[in-house]
Amino acid sequence: MQAMHHNYYEKDNYQPEYLGKQITDVAGKTLLKVQDDLKQSNLTCADVLFENLTTDPISVIKSVYQQFQWDYSDEYDTILKKYLDDNKKQREETKRKLEKQNKDLKGQKDKLHNYKPEDFGLTKKQLSEGSFGIYTSRYAIKSDK
């Protein structure tokens, strides 16, 4: 982790290709290990795709509540909607500030971050094989992004 911090946060040493290799190695192993650990622990777990959580968070949260047989109240719905509205405003303000500092962000609709595998010396093919391939197949994750 220290090596990743050194390469990611210290701009003089930033090496995106090295970082890409390190992160994919660690994340790939972790993705599979977590699944094995959860299975062995017999803990109940809700699987949520990040894309679904970001595009329709309320539906995802309602489905998790339903899976665990928890009550999803009108009060909680109001709190959640207020949080999402406040968070959207905060992200928009952050994006405006960043756009002033970095002209490259102009035109990136609704995104604060825009990463591609190639930015880190990786290919989509590499991310569809090995540990990542097993993980994305298991959860039917689209690899078109």
Compute the average pLDDT.
84
Largest sheet: none
Radius of gyration over all CA atoms, rounded? 19 Å
N- to C-terminal distance: 26 Å
Spell out the helices and strands N to C. HHHHHH
Which outline best applies?
flat
- Beta-strand portion reads under 5%
Helix content: 55-70%
Structural class: mainly alpha
- Count of discrete alpha- or pi-helical segments spanning 4 or more residues: 6
Low-confidence stretches: none
Counted beta strands: 0
Task: For the structure shown, list the relevant keywords.
145 residues; mainly alpha; 6 helices
Describe, in plain words, how this protein is organized in 3D.
The model has no long low-confidence stretch (mean pLDDT 84). With 145 residues, the protein is an all-alpha fold. Helix 2 crosses helix 6 (130-138). It is built from six helices and no strands.
What's the helix and strand layout?
Blueprint: H1 2-9, H2 16-41, H3 50-55, H4 57-67, H5 74-101, H6 130-138
Helix pairs in contact: 2-6
Offer a quick outline of the entry.
With 145 residues, the protein is mainly alpha-helical. Helix content is 61%, strand content 0%.
